[in-house]
Please model this.
Amino acid sequence: SAVISQKPSRDICQRGTSLTIQCQVDSQVTMMFWYRQQPGQSLTLIATANQGSEATYESGFVIDKFPISRPNLTFSTLTVSNMSPEDSSIYLCSVQGRGAYGELFFGEGSRLTVL
Amino acid sequence: AQKVTQAQTEISVVEKEDVTLDCVYETRDTTYYLFWYKQPPSGELVFLIRRNSFDEQNEISGRYSWNFQKSTSSFNFTITASQVVDSAVYFCALSVPEGSQGNLIFGKGTKLSVKP
Model:
């Protein structure tokens, strides 16, 4: 399994500001995935971050709101832009195990509270 | 459309009791994958098991066991002799090849509280 580190682990943000979450993996991976977990809810995939190409966003998520960078095979960032209280969530970075449709391994998440 | 239903929102048991967490899934695909994850209070999601649709064998791992039944579209998870450390939210998830590779469809989770 991969070791995934996320920063920050938690933050309190003001409405209208933006915050960038970093994700570092201890091995090279082709795809990295960003999930959101709203309070008391399940997890939803935001986007897939591929190295060297634009991220692929799921329905309901757009690049202007959640820009993603993937500068190399071990690192990615997710920015939550122009935050509102509805963006208060846990944001999780994940990578896939071996083989297509393998299990996902998750970081500890970044818990954001927007006031 | 794919869907995962975990009807039990919260379960509370006393230590050493057995407990079963239910998971019912919906998909029209014949090839799919099912997962269980544990999310302790710390927040990290811990992978427990992955099962593909062609493997209906039940699995046992220590105190954990899983019962996969395609006839009822269920993939239930049983913890035997529960312990306080089992207290967590447990998620069942589904993925299909037609979707994005990393797109797991998660259920809403079952919060398990094990009291001493």
In short: The CA atoms of residues 29 and 96 of chain B lie 7 Å apart. The interface with chain A takes residues 33, 35, 37, 42-45, 47, 50, 91, 95, 97, 100-104, 106-109 of chain B (CB under 8 Å). The radius of gyration of chain B is 14 Å.
